[in-house]
Amino acid sequence: MRGAPNIFDVLIPIPYSPYGMMILQGSGVIGRRQGDNYVIDYEGNCYGAESLLSFESRVLRAADRASVNYPTAARMAILAPGAFVKVGEYDYASKALVLFDSAPGLRMLREWLGDEPLPQVRRAASDLWRVVQVHAVAANGDAVSLEDHDVPGVYDVEVPGLLWDDATVATAALRRFHGVVPVADTEALQFTVRDGDRELMPAEEDVAEVDVCGGAVSKRNVAT
Q1: With the CA atoms of 201, 203, 208 and 213 taken in that order, what torsion angle do they form, in degrees rounded to the nearest 10?
Q2: Which of 86, 126, 153, 210 could lock onto 162 through a cystine, CB 3.0 to 4.6 A?
Q3: Do residues 19 and 64 both lie within one domain?
Q4: pTM for the whole structure
Q5: Could you give the CA distance from residue 14 to residue 4 in angstroms, rounded to a whole number?
Q6: Same domain, 139 and 217
Q7: Closest by alpha carbon to 58, among 85, 86, 97?
Q8: Is 2 contained in some domain?
Q9: 19 lies in which domain range?
Q10: pLDDT at 223
Q11: Dmax over Cα atoms in the chain, in whole Å?
Q12: Residues 111, 209 within the same domain
């Protein structure tokens, strides 16, 4: 295929997102820009081929198909790129997989691979993760405190940044924070998310669909 990229993004779908439920767990998923679209290819080895037992081999197979635009049902243009996290890159020319040395990304990859060990490949630094602040207050206006945070009611949260708009980042931050709030009645709390001086507003559809840590955030949790 003319113009085929040599470097592909290596992706993990967010757990419980529509893509995370559609793509076989442990699949090698790669992505790239194609015109105005973002397109992914994936290989899950659903038939148990001996040559595709490693994550690296599944990534290579997906990149093989993408590099020549080989017809396959395991390809799609992504309508919601925020449902994926970039955990590394694959250099097709040198057949080299590089994983980003990011604790959240590696944790998600371990969960995605299940019992399969992480690939023993080169690690690289990444700035794809954004740190935003979740501000939490109770119904009476008091800031909610956690013992391991210095400033009551203000908590730094690390969220993935690949192709994520502000609304998706805000929702992911709320979901992560929701898992550590030490109060039973979280419905009585109000949250806002800030990136420096900017307030990030979650979209209603994101609140329903984006799930990073298995928590749940209702619309009543979100201060609008």
Answers
A1: -40
A2: 86
A3: yes
A4: 0.62
A5: 26
A6: yes
A7: 97
A8: no
A9: 7-124
A10: 36
A11: 61
A12: no
For residue 105, what are the contacts with CB-CB under 8 A and spacing of at least 6? 12, 85, 86, 87, 88, 99, 126, 128, 129, 160
Per DSSP, what are the bridge partners of residue 13? 84
Q: Which residues contact 116 (CB under 8 A, 6 or more apart)?
A: 26, 54, 55
Tally the domains of the chain.
2
Structure confidence at residue 63 (pLDDT): 95
The residue ranges of the chain whose pLDDT is under 70 are 1-5, 80-82, 125-129, 146-151, 160-164, 176, 178-188, 203-224
> Tell me, what's the pLDDT at 190?
76
The pLDDT assigned to 142 comes to 79
Q: What local confidence, expressed as pLDDT, does residue 179 receive?
A: 56
Beta pairing class for 84-91 and 96-100: antiparallel
Residue 124 identity: A
Same domain, 80 and 173: no
Sign of CA dihedral 121, 125, 127, 129: positive
Scan for tokens 């898992």, then name that residue.
Answer: 179
Check residue 160 and give its pLDDT: 63
Domain boundary among 92, 124, 156: 124
Q: Clarify whether residues 117 and 178 are in a common domain.
A: no
Q: Confirm whether 134 is domain-assigned.
A: yes
Owner of token pair 């928590």:
215
What's the pLDDT score for residue 218?
35
Q: Please state, in angstroms and as integers, the Cα–Cα distance from residue 57 to each residue in 90, 118, 127, 143, following that order.
A: 11, 13, 26, 49
* Tokens describing residue 119: 């690939």
Q: Which of 98, 124, 150 is the last residue of a domain?
A: 124
The reply to whether 103 and 63 lie within a common domain is yes
